[in-house]
Amino acid sequence: MSGLDELDRPESAGGVGARTDADAIADGREPAAPRRGAADPVKVLMHRHRELCERAVDPLEIAAGLEAHGVTDRTAARFRHRDVFSLAEEMYARVPRDGDAPPPITPTAIPRPRLDWALITLLPGALCAATVTGVRLTQGRTCLLVAAAGILAVTLALGAALRRGPLSPSGGARPGPHRAGAWSCWLLGYAALGDGLLRAAVGGGPDGLPDGTADGPWPLAAVPLLTLALACAPAAWSAHFLAVRARRRLDSSRGLQEFAASVQPLLLGTLTLFMCALAALDALCATVLGEPADHGQTLTLGALFFLARLLTVHGFTHAPAVVLGTVGAAEVLAPASVFAGRLPGCGFLAMPVERLVAAWGPAGVPSLVCGAGAVTLLIHATRTLTRASAHARTDQPC
Fold it and tell me: 323: which residues sit within 8 A by CB, 6+ positions away?
């Protein structure tokens, strides 16, 4: 009978205390210091993480699993180890294997580019470009039908791109709250119509719009929508680049702190790579469509979406939903506060937004709130996406 099988038998009174410690670790709480004469606490911890220990190919994989369950260096000190990696080394060494010979260490599976997701990520941009062209070439009811069909096609293509390849959540990640998708749609709608709406609100209504807006009370800004749709492809390739490099670092690192120190600049470099591609696409779309481009609004919104998707892909869904909801609510309140300021005695409500619009223009509001949201997610990502557990192996192909 193997050492792990022996742990299935009931423990003595001392074993009950050790089992309680393991339960505390599983719940993310600090265990009490092991009592003298108690059962081996590391052995009980191995039993609690039996599947992890048996399938691990190196100590770092066990360390990543322990880290995901809330085990910290302080917890490892309770087991008389200097850090989590040292504790994982003992657990890896004590896993019973046939002939007492450890299996050969194989490199972590590295996702490779696949033609299917590479082509799917190009669909949203291509369909959005076709929709914009169709809307500009048609009028009246035909224009509305083309716009409706184009929005439906782009939505379906974007959904397919987010379900396959590097932009799809890993096998262990739970889907994020549905409200995150609703707020994302609102942010895209505001990028297209929000500047005109806010300009009208500050100017006193639709009559306050400048001359030359014959397409309706609030003209459609196609540049941000087309830029973000085309950015789906570089976002997927940037996420793929991060996954490949991070998993290679996972193979070569000798500890959790070493891995975190090497992945943090990689994360920042990946974001910079995506932002450069986004800026180039924004300039290209503005030139082709002949519209003025507000790079601040498009870049901050693109960074917000990219960081939110990276966190979702690696299983961190709560923070993106909260930040997207907060940013969306702020963009709702901006024109609402201006309209509320028209009420008698409520002019103070519109003052902050009016001053911001006077200083930076209507695009200053989304640039400010999206930029603040992107910075918040970046800070969160540097703390979560630098964990080894965030890049653990999955069976899902990229």
Answer: 304, 308, 373, 376, 377
Please calculate the CA angle 20-24-29 and round it to the nearest 5 degrees.
Answer: 155
Q: Is the whole-model pTM more than 0.90?
A: no
Q: What is the largest CA-CA distance in the chain?
A: 86
Instruction: Look at the block and give the residue holding tokens 């459609």.
Output: 220
What tens digit of pLDDT does each residue of 63-84 get? 777 777 777 767 766 776 667 7
pLDDT of residue 360 exceeding 50, the answer is yes
Residues 233, 314: Cα–Cα separation, whole Å = 19
Torsion, Cα 323 327 328 330, to 10 degrees, reads 140
pLDDT at residue number 112: 58
Whether pLDDT at 240 is above 80: yes
Q: Give Cα 53 distance to the centre of its chain.
A: 29
Sequence-distant (6+) residues with CB within 8 A of 249 are 259, 262, 263, 266
Please compute, for residue 227, the number of CA atoms within 13 A of its CA located in the half-sphere on the CB side: 36
Q: In this structure, which amino acid lies at residue 298?
A: T
